[in-house]
Description:
Layout: H1 2-10, H2 12-33, H3 40-47, H4 53-80, H5 120-124, H6 138-146, E1 213-214, H7 221-229, E2 235-237, E3 240-242, E4 246-251, E5 258-259, E6 263-266, E7 269-272, H8 274-285, E8 288-293, H9 301-310, E9 314-316
Parallel strand pairs: 1-7, 4-8, 8-9
Antiparallel strand pairs: 2-3, 3-4, 5-6, 6-7
Amino acid sequence: MNKILDFIKSHKYAIIWTLCYVVITWAILYFLFDFSIFSSVQWHHLMRAQLHGFPGFVFGILILAALPLYIATTTLIIHTKQPLITIPIPKIKIPAFLKSSTPEPTPAPTSESETPALGPDEVDTPIELPPDMPAELRVAFIRARNNIGRTQTSAFNAPQQTLTPDTSATPEIDETSFPLPTDFDIDLPTPDIDTMPTFTEINFDDPEPDNDTQTNTNDNSELIKYLTKNNKPYSSYDNIVITDTHAIITHSDPDFWVADTDNWFAAGRTCPSPIIAVQNAAATHNRIPTIYLATKNIMDIDKLIPEWQSAGITVITDLSEI
């Protein structure tokens, strides 16, 4: 238990950042694209979905950049042991009138004795008084003798001197070099609404419409030309050539195709599986299902040919094999 607590304390900034990053990523994807990162159904649908347009581009960038960005920021936090973002707390300045002012203690007045205090030199020097001087005049005589009655001035009770600013040191500003504007309204350019990107709604719950172009990959012109040249009777049935013994379908499209069970896929196109089409036509006309591969640009073709042959389909790459 202590090891777990020590680990949490030593990596608390990374743990806090992880929680914040997950919440922020979920909020952005959910409120902008209606996609929840905690839904396994939507992740499964995303694996087979195709993203189109600017919203799809932005969504794909967010999905691809989320994990590398999290790894980079978390590594930085672990190495520095400091939070990634530090929010400074503003300091509140208390006004002067709200501060409690404590009055300074006033010094107690010192009572002046009748006999004035003398300096060290004057104490040692005896003052000769006239023998016939009355006792009432002795103190006044000593004050006058030692200049005690003279007003003592210091830096605290000296008269204040008013300083006049030196106008010659202040540079004069030429008002003509910085004219004041008569109007402070600034005309900002109006943004062009047609050029601004807009976000369209992406709904992961509804089935995605099939925007791929439905095409056929079988061009039977070469096969028909060969049969006509060799005087072999034939007929056509749903782009499938029916001879006396075979039901033949042709694959001659130059694009790279991915053969699935029900449909074949190429770049931006899809078509029904020629294998299923020729099997249905062969069963209808009681013929041998055959596929003529004018081009072999199919993914895993070497693996698919044995599977088709094991299902009873004849695979030919040369018309002389008919």
